[in-house]
Specification:
Chain lengths: 217, 217
DNA sequence: CGGATTCTAGACCGATCGGTCGAGACGGCT
DNA sequence: AGCCGTCTCGACCGATCGGTCTAGAATCCG
């Protein structure tokens, strides 16, 4: 049985030092491997092989592959939120937050390509035991993950509505269009590594500024 | 060996009557099955079972699973192009073609959900023998498929540039943003069947009109 | 030091996958 | 009738998957 607190270092989510180190190592190796050979080829055996441990070690630290996948996704989301949330908080206006959201997200994608490709591959390839994609499963779970809710741009559009900065618009639909347009950068990068993601981000800033700002009379 | 021309009915792509009927039946069953249980569960065996034939029959008419998948995708794309291309051709202006492109695509998605979900599932789950998604593989093939090129919205933005209807803009990036934003409707529908895809289409028309039209001075 | 716990290795399991093969049913043609 | 190409069936193959189990090494802690 895994105890709720090891002994070596106190803080750290109720896990042994070895446990945390191994989990981080395995998650890191899994991200690299998914990025290199695709999720479909990233079996538990190969992940273990890359980490230099036996397959059973992976399944000792993660109950099953789904838990490992969720750990990978959570890890990357937290990293992204660490960059994006402060950038948004530094802006006062809704338009400013919107631009910061887009720019910081594209900057993260551009500078964290292995993680971005891994997320894309997992979101596309992985299915839960019920046969759902992770985004489908998340939308069916009662309590949405904190970082996912914080990274939903719908709040920005609602804010712009309340302040009168933006034209009357259906915030949820704008949020979907923006989210998928940003994700499109990852798709495009996977097809063309020379794609200029930052320039694309600037163009998205222009597009959604023009599309949301209240017209000057 | 499959002869290059059967004997029964002349026209029809150099295939026997039985051959064409079986292929159409198998493709249809595969679309239904992928829509219902996901591509990951749609093995050749289950596709054959649904069609009421032996697995080897499927692999007799299609060299391997990849060829079957390409037949499915091609079939759906042709159906979509049949709706969208005339709608676009009926418009004179670039703005008109852009709106027609968006509306006809969303209308197709809304009225052909099994096909849309099947495409989404295949684009996300399927990998070629080289480990590439179909869109990656297509972007690496020298000669792009005819229907895919015709359905690329980049030409619309280039047209609007030439006629001066649109502001100066990077057409390829607008095309990526539009394409992924439209595809976002399928993702959203897979999460929420009650999502109003047609209203989303109208909002996309507004967004991309505002984002592309030259400002009146 | 010594017992309990945590961690790891490697063999093993049943299931399923895409794909092959040989035998035979079917149907048009002469 | 009898031939021959088209088509179908079901058994079979090797590989790989996620996951389990047992036995032993490493580590912690009193």
């Amino acid at each position: 049985m895994r105890s709720s607190e090891g002994g070596s270092s106190g803080a750290g989510g109720g896990r042994t030092f070895t446990e945390r180190a191994r989990r981080a190592q395995i998650v890191g190796c899994a991200i690299e491997l998914v990025n290199e050979v695709g999720f479909g080829q990233a079996s538990v055996a190969r992940i273990a092989q890359r980490a230099g441990v036996a397959k059973s070690v992976v399944l000792y630290h993660f109950a099953n592959k789904e838990e490992l996948v969720r750990a990978i996704v959570g890890d990357i989301f937290v990293t992204g939120a660490t960059v994006m949330l402060p950038a948004m908080a530094a802006e006062e206006t809704a338009a400013g937050k919107l631009a910061a959201y887009i720019r910081s997200n594209l900057a993260f994608i551009n500078s964290h390509r292995p993680e971005s490709f891994a997320i894309l591959d997992i979101m596309t390839s992985f299915r839960t035991q019920e046969g759902l994609r992770l985004d489908e499963a998340a939308s069916r779970e009662a309590r949405p993950t904190a970082e996912m809710a914080n990274l939903d741009p719908v709040g920005i559009f609602e804010l712009g509505q309340r302040t009168g900065e933006f034209r009357p618009l259906p915030a949820p639909m704008l949020a979907i269009a923006l989210r998928t347009a940003i994700d499109g950068a990852v798709w495009q990068l996977s097809r063309d590594p020379d794609f200029d993601a930052l320039a694309y981000g600037e163009e998205l800033v222009t597009i959604f500024d023009l599309a949301s700002r209240r017209q000057e009379p």
